[in-house]
Write a structure and sequence with these properties.
Blueprint: E1 3-6, E2 11-14, E3 20-26, E4 30-36, E5 41-47, H1 56-61, H2 67-79, E6 91-96, H3 109-123, E7 128-133, E8 139-144, E9 150-153, E10 160-161
């Protein structure tokens, strides 16, 4: 069994049944998860910010960092496993977008990330069938490729499924 570990701004995909795709400590970041039942491929992006226009150089270097560049990059990566490049037939789930550092709710990065991601998904004709967004705690997310099962964890809480 292999693990594909994603850091902030990373994205990855696998259709190897023994693999697990995992990212740690989603605070205001949002994890976009695509599951393609046809090719039995899972993909995930760990998105930090909503819009790449604030730093085009960073977006070119690390497209998974921004919502507007991460989703097309992930779909392109998944197309190499036989998935539709526009996301047709994908199951979409979202996690993260918490308010963990901004106690005055001034910047609302988590909410802005989630909204930007939903708008981009809608432009592809896609929408999330499940989400675990917001609140005030970080999440670690792992996906079993074989089962397509998404497990979330957070310090001091029992694991839960999405």
């Amino acid at each position: 069994m292999g693990q594909i570990i994603l850091g902030v701004g990373d994205y990855g995909a696998s259709n190897s049944p023994g693999d697990v795709v995992k990212t740690f400590a989603l605070g205001s970041c949002v994890s976009v998860i695509f599951l393609d039942p046809k090719s039995r491929t899972v993909g995930m992006a760990h998105i930090a910010l909503p819009d790449s226009s604030i730093n085009k150089a960073k977006a070119a270097e690390k497209p998974g960092y921004f919502a507007d560049t991460a989703i097309p990059a992930l779909l392109t990566k998944m197309s190499k496993f036989g998935c539709d490049k526009r996301g047709k037939g994908m199951i979409v789930k979202l996690c993260g977008g918490a308010n963990v550092m901004d106690t005055n709710d001034t910047f609302q990065i988590g909410k802005r990330n989630a909204l930007a991601i939903k708008k981009i998904l809608w432009s592809y004709g896609m929408g999330a069938i499940a989400e675990d967004l917001g609140k005030n705690f970080s999440r670690t997310v792992s996906i079993s490729v074989a089962a397509g099962q998404i497990t979330l964890s957070s310090p001091g809480k029992p694991n839960w499924q999405l």
